[in-house]
Every structure is written in C-alpha cells, then in structure tokens.
Amino acid sequence: MDKAITVAALTVAYGAATALSAIDLEIPKGKVTVLAGPNGCGKSTLLRAIRRLHQPKSGEVRLGDLPISGLKEKELARHIGLLAQNPSAPDDMTVEELVRLGRYPHQSMLQPWSTADGEAIQAAMFGTGVSHLSDRRLGSLSGGQLQRVWIAMVLAQETDIICLDEPVNHLDMAHQIDCLDLVRRLNQEHGRTVVLVLHDLNLAARYADRLVFLKGGSVVAEGAPVELMSEQLIEDVFGISCRVITDPVHERPLCIPIRNSSPRFRAEQATQL
Amino acid sequence: MPHASPTKSLRAHWRIGHRSLFAGLALVLFALMYLSLALGYRLYSPEEIWTALTAFDGSEADVVIHDLRLPRALMAPMVGAALGIAGVIVQTLSRNRIASPDTLGLNAGAAFAVVVASGLFGVVSLPGLSLASALGALVTSFVVFGLAAAAGGISPLRIVLVGVTFAGLFDSFVNVVLTVNETMLDQLLFWLAGSFADRKLDLAFNGLPFVVAGAALAVSLARPLDILQTDDSTARGLGVPLGVVRGLAFVAVALLSGAAVAMAGPVMFVGLVVPHAARALVGLGHRLQIAAAAMVGALYTTLADIVARFVIYPREAPVGAVTAIVGGLLLLVLLRRRAA
Amino acid sequence: MSSLAPRMSPALARIGRRAWIAVAVIAVVAVGLALCGIGFGSTWIDPRRIVEILLGEGTRGERVVVLQLRAPRVAIAVLAGGAMAVAGYLLQKVTRNELASPGVLGVIGGAGLGVVIFLALLSDESNALVTSIVWQPVAAMAGASVAISAVFLLSGQQASSAVRLLLFGIAVGAVAKAATLILMIVGPIYRTTQASRWLAGAVNEINWAEVQVVAIGLAIAMVGVVAVARRLPPTDLDEVSARGIGLNLPVFRILVFALASALTALAVAFAGGVGFIGLMAPHLARLIVGRPVMAGIVASFLLGAIMLVGADLIVRVLFAPTEVPAGTVTAVIGTPYFLYLVLRRGSTNG
C-alpha cells in the first residue's frame, strides 16, 4: 500500500499541556482516512499538525519521503489542501471570488493569473455543483451550499491530499450526507487522498476506507471500519456501551449507543440513585 | 436575508470594463481638482487659472491660485488616496468593516508623534515630521493589534473599542503638550482638525515618496491580502505566511497614514468610508480594490475640501470636521446594518 | 403585611450597615481632599486655617484667595465629578452594561454641542451673552438628551450588546464632536480658546454664580435620582422578568436616561467633558459598598468628587503655573482601566 503521509513519533504541546504524544501513523494514498475519537482526543490537532499549522515539539510529518518542515509555505499548499473548522470569509464576497483564492499557491507575483487557474476554478465549481452560484454572495447561501463552495475552494488548490476538519459540523442530516458523498466522489473519481476529522462515529464508519481512533493524544487503534467497530473497542475509546450491527443498506458497521459507561459518569449516577 | 443585495459589483452590474471605470474616475478627479483651483472665497475663471499656472506675474489672483489653491488641489487627492488604501488594508487585516486608521487609533498616534517631535524635540524638517508620523502610526498599530492578540483574539468590535480608546488617550496627550507649549497651539489647532488649507507645496512633495512607497507595498501585497479575508487556518492552509504579510501590511499602513497625517493632520474617517465605496465598485479582489480606493479616496477628499470652503461661508471649516460628520453617519449606518 | 415583620432579613440589614460605614469613610476622605484642594496653590494654607476662613475669619487677602479663587474651583470639581459619577452609576445599572458611561454613550459630546450652539446663537456682536448663564446647562442638557436618545433609537435591538451599544455611542459622539468643531470656528476666537479648554475638561476660572447654578440644578436632579433609586434593583433582571415583578422597563429606562443626561449636562456645562469618571467611580463604588443602591449612589458621588478634585490637584502640582485640563489625568488613569474591561475575556457579550 502506497503511503501519502507518514507521521513519525509526533509530539505536539500547547504550552505545558501535551496534545499529541509520540504519534506514529501512515495515511494511505488515494484512500479516505477518518480520524475519530471523543472530544479533546487530539484528532483536530493531528490534522492541523499534518498541515503544519502546529509546530511539533518532537518527531516529524513526512510527505512521501520529504519532511514537511523543509517545504516552503506555498509548496506545502500545493500538496495539501485544508478545509478548516468553521472557515470564514466576508459575507459580501462572491462564490467565484472565494474559489479563486484557492489558486494562490500556484501563482507568483509576476504571473498572477493563468488559463490553468481559470480552468481549475471552473472545474472545482463544476465538480462541487456550485457553478450556477458563481455570482452569488456568500451571505446569501444556505449552510449546505456554503460548505460546497468551501470545498470547491480547496479543490481549486489542486492538491493530491485534502484535509477536512469536521466539515459537517453545523449541517443538517441531509446536507451532512450530501457533503460527505461529494468528498467520497472526489476521492473515487479523482483519486485524491482524503483525511477527515469526524465527530459522528457512524458517519465515520460509513465513509472511511481507514479509520483511526484517538484517545488522550494517542492513536488507540487503526484499521478498516469493520475491524475497528467492535463493541469493546468503542466502549474503551468513547466510554459508551453499545451494540454494533451491520447497516442493512450500506453494509457498514453501525453503532447503536446504549448508555454512557465512563467510570466517572457511572460514579455520579450511582451517588444520585 | 434582510434585503436583496446585488449579486455583482457595480462595475459588473453596469457592464463597464476596468479601464472605462478608472478612466471615468480619473476624469471626475481632474474636474474636481480644477474646481478646487477655481472655487473658494473668490471664484476664478479658466483663463485666470491658466495664466496663474503658466505665466505667473504676481497678481493677486496668481498668488492665491499658485500659492494657496494649487498645493491643496494637489495634496487633497494624495491624502485621500493614502487614507483610502490604508483603510482597505486595515479593514482586511482586522476582518472588520468599521476599522480604519481612525477607529484603530493610528491617525491619533501619528498626530501625537508629530506634536511630540515638533514640540518637545524641536523637529522642523518636513521629512523628519513625516517619519515621526509614520513611526507613531506603526507603533500604535503594533500596540493595538498586540493587545488584541494578547487578549487571545478578541472580536473585531472590541479591537475598535481599544483603538478608539487609544485615540482618546493620544488626544489628551496632545492637549497636554499644547497647553504646556502655548506657542504651538495656534500653529497646530487647525492642523489637528485635519485640513489642506495653508499648506506649502513642499509639504505635498515631501509626502509623495511615503505615499508612493506605501501604495507600492500595498499593491505587492494584494494577493496575500485577498487570502487574509478568510480565517487564519484557511489562510495558512493556502500557504500565506501570516506573520510576514501582516508585518509588511502594517508598514504599508504606517507609511500611508503617517504621510497623510503629516501633510494634512488627521482627516477623520476617510479610511472608513472609502473602502466601502471601492468594494461596491470593483468587488473584493485587492488589486482592483486598492486601485479603486486610491481613486475614490482622492475624489472624496478633494470634494470634501471644496465643500469645507462653503459650509460656513465666508469662513472655512476644517475638512476633517466635514469628513468626520460624513464618516460618523456612515458608521451609524454600518452598525445598524450589522455590517460589522 | 404585618407592621411587626422585619423589613429585611438580618443578613441584608448587615450588608446595608456595612455599606453605610464605608460611605462614611469615603466622605471623610472626600472632605480631607477638598480641604487639600483649597489649601494647595501658590501659598499653602493649613486645613485648620481654611475651616476658620470658611467660618468667617482670616485676613482680607486670605479671604480673597480662599473664597474667590480656590473654593469655587474645588466646589465645582466636587459637584461635577459627583454628578458625572452618579450619571455613570445610573447608566450602568439601567443598561446592565459595565462599560457604559456618559463619555462613551455620546452624552458628553452631545452636551458639548448643546453648549456651543447656545454660545453661537445667543451671543451679541461683542461676544457677550444676551441671556443669563443659567440657561447654559439647559442647553447642555438638551444636547445630551438628543445624543443619548439618538444612540438608543439607532441601536434598537442591538442595545443589549454592551460593545455594540458603545460603538453607537462613539459614532454619535464623533458626529457631535465634529459639529462642535465647525461651530467653534464660526464663533469668535475668544470663545474658541475658552470652548476648547473646557471640551478637554477643566475646572479653572470658575465663579460662585456658576457654582450656584450647578448646585441648584444638581439638587433638583438628585431628588429625581432618589425617586428612581428605590426602583433600580429590578433592572438587574432581564426585560421580561422585570415586567413580571411589575416594572415597565422601557418607560423606566427613558426616565433614567433623562436624569443621567441632566446630571452629565450640569457637569459638562461648566467643568467640560471630563472622561472616565462616569466609568470608574461607579465601579469603585460597587466594589466598596456592594449592591445596596442608595449607598452605591452616595458612594459614587463622593468617589467622583474625589477623582475630579484629585485630578485637578495633580495637574496643579505637576504643571503649575500652566493650566492643564484635569480631564487629561482622568484619561491617563481611565484608559488602561477601560482597556482592561474591554479585553477581559467573556466580560461582556459582543
């Protein structure tokens, strides 16, 4: 299996608090990798460290065989695209203006705009189905449309690897599915490597080729969803007792939560009863 | 959606190209500059103006046109362009549509630096004052943004509160210096209100290099500034080195508003008003936005300078007071529309 | 309710007693500082001697210095500082906004504009007022009321956000200040220097007639303050809850705004726009006496008086013989405090 990114003994700290401790991980090329885990487990930090938004305390992230610490900002931005958590842009910016921003890493001061740039933004808007919105202002879009536009901006960046940090956080169920279907299509039709941070375990299991569980700043387990979605493992990682069945439609594992089983929560319950 | 906003910039809406738009703006600007020579306490005909500029013979009309009107006809557009561009940059940097060199305290900082330099250190040379002014703006921008950052990323509205508070503090300091040094009061009172009256042509030529340098730096930063309209993570994801770009942008703002303040004093709220007009004309791309802000700013201050000669005719109001009223009203409109 | 029932619980009564003891201590400090304010000058006069002079003794020279030169200045500082502080207390209470004060809500700017319009319209050729000076605070009050009404009408729903409300106030204040500037140029030069001096906040060159005007106006306004004070506590509640216990908040607010405008106007009309006292004094008062309203108002008044007398004393000590506006000192002290409030995390919505 080809690897797109290698994370080697990566430790990231915020001041004195360690957010990630000695992580080793390989992100396979051309697959959808989902980072999942309870709140504060470090999944977003890991994604951001992969895109070098956090400086590691020790260890490194390699792109193929190259350590990313040696790359220039724009160079790195030509390899890895990032859709940040809750991205923001002015309400009166038009869709096309935003998508054009994705071409920044491909341009130089002397050559600000090329036909390749124009083609890339057309393709990105077409691929995400927002071409008809190109003159609309961002403030006039629905949440689902807006998220597609942001994905279009990341696509216009034309990177092999795309990182998305909780892309479906504020979307309703229909738009969550819509958005993640789009991401999977980009992966399957264009062969892009996708790294996703997802909150929802069942969405993670449904869309991941490869699932990574984090807890307390460490990788607890990784593998195909079918391997990872065991009742015992989910209880260990998420502190929840559950049943895992097979989703009859997509034939993916589906977790049905039963109750909070974390020791502290159980203790609180016990004292109240 | 509260109201149907036009989906395109006015330029696209009117179906005119960039060239026609800027040619049109330039035409209006020249017309206004001509009016700036012609209108005032005395009105002059085109012939009188032409002879004054080409064949100066020392007549009263020649002296007024050449020594009084010409400097302000040249300086007003320069100051307006400088403050307009500075306003665009500051609004993008703070992601805040009510930010401006005034509301962030930069102009007040520059003015304070000028008063200190001339009042306490006896600096009289024009380049020296321009430099002091730019340094004052630069230091203030670092302090205001630094405080905001140190507080852990405060909301855009609070940055403005911090800036306005600093502006008030600088005003008090200026008051102290002026009261202690009464001889300066007369010279500086009109300057402090922001005005183009009684300026020598030297002053305009002296500010020019600062304005040109600031504008050039701004244009070279146009594309990273485009990206800075998004959040920090997205901007870094696109490969923009935030620290470098912000630092250079501060320098550009300091050069521009420093030069403007050194020339005319703090002409209030030009940097607040102009970027809104520029964005409405050409959209959010910074290359065009900066160019449009320069043109619109030049137009606006030249027009305001003419208006200031007539609002309390036969006396003349400081142009800064005129722009402050317009800008203050626009600020109210923006706040009401929750544009910020 | 039975008349035998205690009016409040022992705990609340204890809080109230403690508050009034604190107020008494502040009052002693205020009197001491006022005496120092009178005593300090080109010649130092002993506080005991000042009391004797005030009671009718002393040489002719001493009487002129104390009664004609120094006492009016201190008296106006006491009254203006106090009025500004009470205005701030009322505004902070009724807007439930700890950042509110007459300065940032455009009230000072409006009052200043009112005075300049008054001076410009009602002066004759030789720059003498054609009407009594008594009307000057009325003009200031009209300006102040217009300004604060504009701020609240324009902000509408956004008034509930502390920071947004302040920005509306700042914008209105900026317009008022610019208009003031233009009018000052219309007016004769002598008035300009006078006006620019008091716009910065200064208490020099005051005479007893002006002190009298402020004192009488303040006495009337304070009657109103006492009347609303009994009903102030429920404004700590939100609008619906306040209505639930029988207070019509919107109407009540207008009343309080009018009072705050009047107080600010009285101060601004003669002492000029001294910033930040309306912000700091009420905070300090609440810190010292806690929640009780009447004690809080009295403490605010005294602390405001202390601040302005103190600020005036500082500029006299530091810059004598030049007359630097006392507002400079309050701005230098007030700015860092205001910044601290604004930058403190999660302190206010907005």
UniProtKB/TrEMBL annotation, chain A:
Keywords: ATP-binding, Cell membrane, Ion transport, Iron, Iron transport, Membrane, Nucleotide-binding, Transport. Residues 5-241 form the ABC transporter domain. CDD domains: ABC_Iron-Siderophores_B12_Hemin (cd03214). GO terms for cellular component: plasma membrane. GO terms for biological process: iron ion transport. It comes from the Bacteria. One of its GO terms (molecular function) is ATP binding. It is a peripheral membrane protein. Pfam families: ABC_tran (PF00005). Belongs to the ABC transporter superfamily. This is Iron complex transport system ATP-binding protein. It comes from Aminobacter aganoensis. The lineage of its organism: Bacteria, Pseudomonadati, Pseudomonadota, Alphaproteobacteria, Hyphomicrobiales.
Automatic annotation (TrEMBL), chain B:
The keyword Ligase does not apply. PANTHER family: FE(3+) DICITRATE TRANSPORT SYSTEM PERMEASE PROTEIN FECC-RELATED, FERRIC ENTEROBACTIN TRANSPORT SYSTEM PERMEASE PROTEIN. InterPro entries: ABC_BtuC-like, ABC_transptr_permease_BtuC. GO terms for cellular component: plasma membrane. It is found in: Cell membrane. It is a multi-pass membrane protein. Coiled coil: none annotated. Pfam families: FecCD (PF01032). The chain crosses the membrane at residues 21-44, 74-93, 105-125, 131-152, 159-180, 203-222, 234-253, 259-278, 290-312, 318-335. One of its GO terms (biological process) is siderophore-iron import into cell. The keyword S-adenosyl-L-methionine does not apply. GO terms for molecular function: transmembrane transporter activity. Belongs to the binding-protein-dependent transport system permease family. FecCD subfamily. This is Iron complex transport system permease protein. Keywords: Cell membrane, Membrane, Transmembrane, Transmembrane helix, Transport. Its main location: membrane.
UniProtKB/TrEMBL annotation, chain C:
Keywords: Cell membrane, Membrane, Transmembrane, Transmembrane helix, Transport. The keyword Cell membrane applies. The keyword Cell membrane applies. It is a multi-pass membrane protein. The chain crosses the membrane at residues 20-45, 74-91, 103-122, 134-154, 166-191, 211-230, 251-281, 293-315, 324-343. CDD domains: TM_ABC_iron-siderophores_like (cd06550). It holds the Pfam family FecCD. Its main location: membrane. GO terms for biological process: siderophore-iron import into cell. One of its GO terms (molecular function) is transmembrane transporter activity. GO terms for cellular component: plasma membrane. Gene3D superfamilies: ABC transporter involved in vitamin B12 uptake, BtuC. It is found in: Cell membrane. Belongs to the binding-protein-dependent transport system permease family. FecCD subfamily. This is Iron complex transport system permease protein. The lineage of its organism: Bacteria, Pseudomonadati, Pseudomonadota, Alphaproteobacteria, Hyphomicrobiales.
